[in-house]
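Design a sequence for this backbone.
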């Protein structure tokens, strides 16, 4: 993962001290991470300088009433890379956020090191699984897992280990067009199951959740 490219971040949290703390972490991280916008409302990430942020860090509890799933859906619909960063240490909440298209799920107890690393990974589109999320994956017994054909699984797993679809095609003796077809089928199946996976990082997360690949293998 490259860490020398400037990364812009939008912070959405209803606690000013948390916003200030995260910005300080980024400033002192030794990486070129800049907070472009911050505030208590998701609008800071969808208008003004926040629109250009590579990564959005979203607090799941923006109100006492309900988790910010609606705001997460809004950001994902705009194809934003969203790190859910929350006090809520909940397997169900973590898996729900992943199913809605979040890049990853971090508890605030996991702290600076994981947030900075996840931010860099999100900017590069490289999967990142912090400890709490790994535990949620390992105990996920929910329904809604699509049935993938053996060849779809072969292509998916080979793609996780390859730098390009051309390499996948060469390794499996397929054309790039056929590789794209298989991956499109997998994405459609996940979308139909209500678990969209529009990016490679999302597909990796789904594969880990569904036991197609282990974290050790990745």
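Sequence:
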């Amino acid at each position: 993962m490259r860490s020398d490219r400037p990364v812009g971040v939008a912070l959405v949290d209803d606690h000013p001290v948390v916003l200030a703390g995260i910005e300080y972490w980024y400033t002192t991280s030794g990486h070129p991470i800049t907070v472009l916008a911050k505030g208590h409302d998701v609008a800071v990430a969808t208008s003004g300088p926040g629109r250009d942020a590579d990564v959005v860090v979203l607090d799941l509890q923006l109100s006492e009433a309900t988790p910010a799933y609606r705001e997460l859906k809004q950001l994902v619909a705009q194809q934003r890379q969203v790190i859910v960063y929350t006090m809520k240490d909940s397997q169900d909440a973590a898996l729900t956020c992943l199913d809605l298209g979040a890049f990853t799920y971090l508890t605030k107890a996991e702290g600076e090191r994981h947030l900075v690393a996840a931010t860099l990974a999100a900017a590069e589109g490289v999967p990142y699984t912090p400890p709490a999320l790994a535990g949620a994956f390992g105990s996920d017994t929910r329904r809604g897992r699509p049935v993938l054909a053996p060849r779809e699984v072969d292509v998916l797993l080979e793609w996780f280990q390859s730098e390009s679809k051309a390499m996948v095609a060469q390794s499996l003796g397929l054309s790039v067009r056929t590789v794209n077809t298989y991956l499109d089928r997998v994405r459609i199946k996940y979308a139909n199951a209500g678990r969209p996976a529009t990016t490679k990082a999302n597909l990796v997360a789904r594969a880990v959740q569904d036991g197609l690949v282990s974290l050790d293998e990745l």
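Residues 144 and 195 are 8 Å apart (CA to CA).
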